[in-house]
Amino acid sequence: MNTLVDGVAQDHIAVRDRGLAYGDGVFRTLRCEQGRLLAWPRHYAKLQADCAALGIVCPEAALLLADLAQLAPASAAVKIIITRGVSARGYACDPSASPTRIVQVAPLPDYPDSLRTEGVQLRLCAWPLSIQPGLAGIKHLNRLDQVMARREWQDASIFDGLMCNARGELVEGVMTNLYLLQGNALYTHPLADCGVAGAMRGLVLELAAGMGVQICQQAFGADRLAQVDALLLSNSLAGVLPVRQCGAQSWHNFDLAQQLHAALLEQARKESIPCCPV
Amino acid sequence: MNTLVDGVAQDHIAVRDRGLAYGDGVFRTLRCEQGRLLAWPRHYAKLQADCAALGIVCPEAALLLADLAQLAPASAAVKIIITRGVSARGYACDPSASPTRIVQVAPLPDYPDSLRTEGVQLRLCAWPLSIQPGLAGIKHLNRLDQVMARREWQDASIFDGLMCNARGELVEGVMTNLYLLQGNALYTHPLADCGVAGAMRGLVLELAAGMGVQICQQAFGADRLAQVDALLLSNSLAGVLPVRQCGAQSWHNFDLAQQLHAALLEQARKESIPCCPV
C-alpha cells in the first residue's frame, strides 16, 4: 500500500492525531480504473459535506489531486482520510490545529463477474447500528458498529452483512447501501438517525428514478425481506450488486441490479477525472 | 508529552492502525501522583473488560507497568490506548493482527482548589449521546459525540457540559460521570444503552453506599435538575467535584461531594502502585 500524509510519502501518523484519539475525522473510498478516479466530483462534494458537518476544514480538491498524481495509481482502491489534526490531551480542539490529510492506494478487491451474474449471499447481523441523528449519513471514523458486525462471520462466501438499528429497522450493509425492489418501487432507509449515505447511493437513486422506478425512502423491518422481489447493494468499489440469498430468503430477479450497475458505471466514468499526470 | 508505542519511545503509529481507520480500540486516563498510579487494579480491570467487550486481546498488566516504569512520571495524566492493531483495507480483522499498545504521559490538568470549595459551572449540551446498547459503558475510541459536544462552548469558566441521549435522558458530562443528590438518594443514569461507565463511577457508588446514601441507577430528564439538592461529577483526574451552577439552576450543598472526594482519594491511594522503578 502506498500512502501520503499531508503530501509526504510516509506510513505513519502522529500518535496525538485526533483521528486516533477520538475517531475525529471522515473518509472516502473511491474506485480508480485506468488512472481515472470514478465519480470524483460526487466524492469530493460528499467529503466537503462530511467535513462541514463535523466542523473540519476540508482540504482543497487540488491538494488531494496532487497527492493522487504523486501516487499515480492505475487501477486501485483509493482511500482518503481527513482528520481534525493533532491536538493536546482532552476533547477540546486546538483552534490552530490543521487537518491531517491521508491518501492511500491499495489493490482493488477481487470481485468476480459471478457476483453480478449469480448475485451475492448476505447474512443478517445481530449487532445494532447506533441511533445518532447528529452523525447520521456522515462517513466518519467512528466505525465500531461496522467492525463489530463484521466480526460476526468468517465464511468467505458471505459478501456482506445486513444491519438493523436498535429500533429493528433494516438500514444497510456493513460496507454497502441497501435497496429493496417491490413491484416498481425501490425502498431504502432514509438514514435520518443512523447509517452512511454513500456517494453511490445518491447516484443509484437518481438513475433508478430516471428509469421510471419509484423511489421510497422509508423505514422497514427485516421481515420485509420476505415480501420483496429483489435486493440490491451498492458501494463505490463494487458498483451495484444483486442479492441471491440472505438467510432463508432467496431472490432470482437480478435485472434491475444489472441495469443500474451498467448505468452507474457509465455515469461514474463520465464523471471521472485523471488521477495521474496525463 | 512522552509516548511509548508497543514499549518503544515514538510519537507516531502506523497509518494502517485500526485505531485510526475505525476508532477500533479502547482507552484509559489515570492519575499518577508522586510516582504512583492511583486505583490501578480498578483501571486495569476496566481496561480488560472493555477489551473483552470488543474482542481485543488486552496486554498483560506487567507490559503496561514496564512501559510506565520506562516513562517514569512523577505527577502526570497517564493515557493508555489499546487498538486492535494494524490490518489491511476493510472492516474484517486480520486474525493474526496483534493489538497496538500506546502509553502517554502528559502534565496533570490545573484544577485549583476553588473548584472543590466553590463548585464548578456546567452547561447543557445540545449534541445528543448515541443510543447503542452494544457499546454502552465501554471507553472506546469512537468519541465523536464528546468531540462535537465539547465544540459547543469556548468559555473557560465552564468546566464541563452535560449530555442527554436522543431520548432526552440526562446521562453524563462530556468528560465526567454525573450524580444527582435528592434527599438521601444519589441518582445516576444506568448506562445500559449509552454513556461511559468510568472507573471512578464504581468507586463513587461504593463509597456513597458505605456512607449510608441510597444508590438509584435510573433514567431521568434534564428537568430533574430543578428538583435536586446537589449535583456531583467524577472522573479519574479530578476525583469528585461539586457543581455550583448549570444554566439557570444553582446549588450550594457541596458536603457530599467533598466527603466523597476525600474518601475516593484515600481509597485510590490505597489501591495505588508505584509506576516508576522504586
Which terms would index this structure?
D-amino Acid Aminotransferase, Chain A, domain 1, 17 strands, nine-stranded mixed sheet, 278 residues, alpha+beta, homodimer, D-amino Acid Aminotransferase, Chain A, domain 2, lyase (chains A, B), 30% strand
Distance between the amino and carboxyl termini of chain A: 22 Å
Q: Report the radius of gyration of chain A as a whole number of Å.
A: 19 Å
| Oligomer classification | homodimer
CATH class label of the largest domain in chain A? Alpha Beta
Overall 3D geometry of chain A? globular
Q: What is the share of helical residues of chain A? A: 25-40%
Total of helices of chain A: 7
Enzyme class (chains A, B): lyase
Organism (chains A, B): Chitinimonas taiwanensis DSM 18899
GO cellular component, one term (chains A, B): cytosol
Cofactor (chains A, B): pyridoxal 5'-phosphate
Give an overview in words.
The structure is a homodimer of 278-residue chains. The first copy, chain A, has helices at residues 18-22, 40-54, 61-71, 114-118, 144-150, 199-210, 255-270; strands at 2-5, 8-9, 12-14, 25-33, 36-37, 76-83, 100-106, 120-124, 158-164, 170-173, 177-182, 185-188, 214-217, 230-235, 239-246, 249-250, 273-274. Chain A is α+β, with helices and mostly antiparallel strands and 278 residues long. Chain A has two domains: 2-108, D-amino Acid Aminotransferase, Chain A, domain 1, CATH 3.30.470; 114-269, Alpha-Beta Barrel (D-amino Acid Aminotransferase, Chain A, domain 2). In chain A, strands 8, 9, 10, 11, 12, 13, 14, 15 and 16 form a nine-stranded mixed sheet that branches. A seven-stranded antiparallel sheet of chain A has the order 2-1-7-6-4-5-17. In chain A, β14 (230-235) and β15 form a beta hairpin. The two termini of chain A are 22 Å apart. The relative contact order of chain A is 0.17. The mean pLDDT of chain A is 96. Chains A and B meet through β3, α1, β6, β7 and α5 of A and β3, α1, β6, β7 and α5 of B. β3 of chain A pairs antiparallel with β3 (12-14) of chain B.
